[in-house]
């Protein structure tokens, strides 16, 4: 009912003004995350941007993994030749035990295969375990460019720098490597189909000096940047904090409940951010009841799919300029319905 009401009230928007649909780690609700298959599926169903989280290998190649800890997203534990590389590390203050990308060359990583990170919630995705490699940033860029040509529409990329301070601390700064690859692809302006995002501040400020592509400051409902540049995310979301973000970034990527609370009511964040000249791209909208606010759940099974399109509609009604979703098919349908196209 909510979605139908919003469709009736929506004013048709030209394509350039429509909120963007960002495929979170690809179509990760349908394929194991951060695989070329997940990105391909996202493009197939109409996503505007595909999102690779970026980490570095031992030989300094940027690859797409949610974390540098690959214990839960690859079959590395099943490779006896890598058993001795299991270790314990402290990353951004948190203890991790497992296997890490920075201890593997790209050639070694390519012998591994991806697996579903959330098999209990997404058992259908686990059927694809063992089928796909760990992709490089270069492969993601090539895919976006090739599919842009094939489809006749621009497919953008939305990379996130993961743990940049940690990587810098082990002699692997990420910023120049990322910028060089983007510039080699011809992407060095605010018009490029690229957003770079980070939960940290200092690396975004460093990137601002290296490139003109758009930058997004990620913020969560709790905690603060791992680089200690600000005392908390809450402090960054005050009017003064948003104005400071606008000095080095083009937008913010807030946790979704910072835009619309679990009670379905919008906050003032989008209005405040727009006043500071910032775009707003909330994260992450997923279909499973486990991730949905209570008002959008369907039944009690945490794996069952609820009304994610209603949640998307509320984010758009609050003024969001785009959104991250694991289910870009539903994201595109909800966005286009809200925009009044019905396509």
TrEMBL record:
Pfam families assigned to the protein according to its UniProt record, in alphabetical order: GDPD
CDD domains: GDPD_ScGlpQ1_like
A GO CC term attached to the entry: periplasmic space
InterPro entries in the cross-refs: GP_PDE_dom (IPR030395), PLC-like_Pdiesterase_TIM-brl (IPR017946)
Domain GP-PDE: 19-335
EC number of this enzyme: 3.1.4.46
Name by which UniProt lists this protein: glycerophosphodiester phosphodiesterase
Organism: Sphingomonas spermidinifaciens
């Amino acid at each position: 009912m909510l979605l139908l009401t919003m469709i009736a009230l929506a004013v048709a928007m030209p394509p350039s003004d429509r909120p963007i649909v960002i495929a979170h780690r690809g179509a990760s609700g349908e394929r194991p995350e951060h695989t070329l298959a997940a990105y391909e599926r996202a493009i197939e169903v109409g996503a505007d941007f595909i999102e690779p989280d970026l980490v570095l290998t031992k030989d300094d190649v940027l690859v797409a993994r949610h974390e540098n800890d690959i214990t839960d997203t690859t079959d590395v534990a099943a490779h006896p030749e890598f058993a001795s590389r299991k270790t314990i590390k402290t990353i951004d203050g948190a203890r991790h035990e497992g296997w890490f990308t920075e201890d593997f060359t790209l050639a070694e990583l390519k012998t591994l295969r991806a697996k579903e990170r959330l098999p209990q919630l997404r058992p259908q995705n686990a059927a694809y375990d063992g089928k796909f490699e760990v992709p490089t940033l270069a492969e993601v860029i090539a895919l976006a460019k090739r599919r842009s040509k094939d489809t006749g529409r621009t497919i953008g990329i939305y990379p996130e720098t993961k743990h940049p301070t940690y990587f810098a601390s082990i002699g692997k700064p990420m910023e120049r490597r990322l910028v060089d690859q983007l510039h080699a692809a011809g992407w060095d302006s605010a018009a490029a189909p690229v957003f770079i995002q980070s939960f940290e501040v200092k690396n975004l400020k460093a990137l601002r000096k290296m490139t003109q592509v758009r930058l997004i400051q990620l913020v969560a409902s709790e905690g603060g940047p791992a680089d200690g540049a600000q005392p908390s995310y809450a402090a960054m979301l005050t009017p003064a904090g948003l104005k400071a973000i606008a000095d080095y970034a083009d937008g913010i990527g807030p946790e979704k409940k910072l835009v619309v609370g679990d009670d379905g009511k919008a906050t003032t964040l989008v209005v405040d951010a727009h006043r500071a000249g910032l775009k707003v791209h909330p994260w992450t909208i997923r279909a499973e009841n486990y991730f949905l606010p209570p008002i959008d759940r369907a039944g009690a099974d945490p794996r069952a799919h609820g009304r994610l399109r209603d949640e998307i509609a509320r984010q758009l009604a609050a003024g969001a300029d785009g959104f991250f979703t694991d289910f870009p098919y539903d994201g595109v349908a909800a966005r286009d319905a809200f925009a009044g196209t019905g396509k």
